[in-house]
Amino acid sequence: MTLPFVVVEAGPAVLADARADLRAVGWHVVGRLDDGPRSGGLVLALPVADEDAAAVALFSAIEGVGLLVDASAAERHVVDRLCDDLRRIGHLDHRVSAAGPLLDEEERAVMDLLAGGSTLGAAATALHLSRRSADRRLASARAKLGAPATGAAIAAYRRRLERLPHPSA
C-alpha cells in the first residue's frame, strides 16, 4: 500500500482541504494512533513546529503510517529537512498554498458523488437536497474549478484527487 505524506505550510483552510482530499479518496484521518494495528487506511494528522515533532512524524512514516502534517508554524530548515526525508520514503504532496480554489463541504459532497458516477438528481437525493440546491452547489463548484461544463468540473476535481494514493492501492 502506498501511503500518503502530505505536508501543509499554508493556513487552516488549505489544511482542511488536504484533510478532505484524503477522506475523498478513502483515507481515515486520525489525531492519534491507538496501540492497535496501524493498517487499514489510517493517516495521522499532527502539527510539526520543531525538530522533535518532525522526528516523530518521520518515525511514524518509517513505521508505515500515512501523514497529514501541519507545518505552518515550523521554521524553514525543519520543513525542508522533513520534506526531504519523506521524499526518500515515498511520494510527498507538499502544499505551500491552495492547490486550486477551495470547495466548501457542500460543494465537495456534490462533486464526490458526481465523480463517483452519480447523476445530479441522485446526488441531490443522497444529500437530502432539492434538485435546485444541488444544481446551485454544482454551479458554484464549476465556477471555482474554472470549468464551463459539469464534465469538465468532474475531470478537474478528479485531477485534484489523483495525486493522493488510495488506501487499497
Automatic annotation (TrEMBL):
Keywords: DNA-binding
Alphabetical list of InterPro entries matching this protein: Sig_transdc_resp-reg_C-effctor, Tscrpt_reg_LuxR_C, WH-like_DNA-bd_sf
Domain HTH luxR-type, chain residue ranges per copy: 100-157
GO molecular function ontology, one term from the record: DNA binding
GO BP field: regulation of DNA-templated transcription
Domain of life where this protein originates: Bacteria
Keyword Oxidoreductase: no
Annotated protein name in UniProt: DNA-binding CsgD family transcriptional regulator
Species, as recorded: Nocardioides thalensis
Lineage of the organism: Bacteria, Bacillati, Actinomycetota, Actinomycetes, Propionibacteriales
